[in-house]
């Protein structure tokens, strides 16, 4: 059994209307959730497939970091799906600096965050003092690098160029992977 602590305002999202979300997570990840809505503590117990059960706490953690339940459940799509968190607060000197850096990650009208999603295929959420990412290993790595570039003060244009370059690399690798053996290249 693992214990995960999530923010008070995310408990309702985890439970869902009439407990619907909680039951879906329990069924899909083959776990049992014991939610303490007083302190935000969630006990996650594996009741079925132990490999699926390992993703249970990650799903709860992702919802706690601001992901919609359907996005968090993407972690079950395959064994390679990852959930990663970038701590904005750790990269900030004070509250004002944190607000500014969070703003840099979000971008004007959310455009920077959207571009991170569009060009990598990962889901990206900025909630509280963290940036959360759900995706394949390479997608998560690219988003983390882009976020760290922005937190270190890199110009948005340079980060967008980096994202586009990585997008093209991933697309090219995908094409290589899908070529038929023995066919013309």
From TrEMBL:
Source domain of life: Archaea
Domain K Homology residues, every copy:
1-81, 82-152
Q: State the SUPFAM superfamilies in the record.
A: Eukaryotic type KH-domain (KH-domain type I) (SSF54791)
Q: Name one GO molecular function term.
A: RNA binding
PROSITE patterns attached here?
Answer: KH_TYPE_1
- Keyword Oxidoreductase in the entry? The reply is no
| Keyword terms of this UniProt record | RNA-binding
**Gene3D superfamilies, sorted:** K Homology domain, type 1
- NCBIfam families, alphabetized: arCOG04150, PRK13763.1-4
Report what the protein is called.
Answer: KH domain-containing protein
List the source organism. Answer: Natrinema soli
Q: What is the lineage of its organism?
A: Archaea, Methanobacteriati, Methanobacteriota, Stenosarchaea group, Halobacteria
């Amino acid at each position: 059994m693992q214990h995960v602590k999530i923010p008070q305002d995310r408990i309702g999202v985890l439970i869902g209307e009439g407990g619907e979300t909680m039951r879906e997570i329990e069924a899909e990840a083959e776990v049992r959730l014991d939610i303490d809505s007083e302190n935000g503590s969630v006990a996650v117990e594996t009741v079925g497939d132990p490999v699926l059960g390992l993703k249970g706490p990650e799903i709860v953690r992702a919802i706690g970091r601001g992901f919609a339940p359907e996005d968090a459940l993407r972690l079950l799509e395959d064994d390679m799906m990852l959930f990663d968190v970038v701590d904005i607060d750790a990269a900030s000197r004070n509250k004002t600096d944190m607000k500014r850096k969070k703003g840099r990650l979000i971008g004007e009208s959310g455009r920077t965050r959207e571009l991170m999603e569009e060009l990598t295929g990962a889901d990206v959420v900025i909630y509280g003092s963290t940036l959360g990412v759900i995706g394949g290993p390479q997608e998560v790595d690219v988003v983390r690098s882009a976020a760290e570039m922005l937190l270190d003060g890199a110009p948005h244009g340079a980060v967008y160029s980096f994202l586009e370059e990585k997008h093209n690399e991933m697309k090219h690798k995908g094409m290589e992977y899908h070529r038929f053996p023995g066919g013309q290249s």
